Amino acid sequence: MLSFVAVLNKQNSKKMEHKNFKFKTNINCGGCVASVKPYLDNVEGISTWEVDTNNKDKVLIVEAEGITEKKIIETVQKAGFKIERMA
Fold first, then answer.
1. Strands (DSSP E) along 1-87, which ranges?
2. Cys staple from 21: which of 32, 51, 62, 78, with CB 3.0 to 4.6 Å?
3. What rounded mean pLDDT belongs to the chain?
């Protein structure tokens, strides 16, 4: 089975608290990652993100500064995907 992981690194000059968020999604292939990429790339406060499409839960991991979990969820939903917080 082919796995696709996308990672985005952004430089941020502001010093804020780093937070890591983990979500279960239905982003399940490279095409889906490509669809959500412009949404996540353009959100202020996301330092890095990646989707593990090989994981059965299609896990999205976001490292962020100064952004809320709610904003990340809204962004992924706006891109047309399901997302829920993982414990």
1. 8-9, 18-25, 46-52, 59-65, 83-85
2. 62
3. 87
Total count of residues recorded for the chain: 87
Domains identified in the chain and CATH numbers: 17-85 (3.30.70.100)
Whole-angstrom Cα distance, residue 75 to residue 69? Answer: 10
| Alpha-carbon gap, residue 13 to 28, rounded angstroms | 33
Among residues 44, 53, 47, 39, the alpha carbon closest in space to that of 6 is found at 53
The 10 Å Cβ neighbour count of residue 69 is: 14
On whether the CB atoms of residues 75 and 21 are closer than 8 A, the answer is: no
C-alpha span between 52 and 87 (Å, rounded): 17
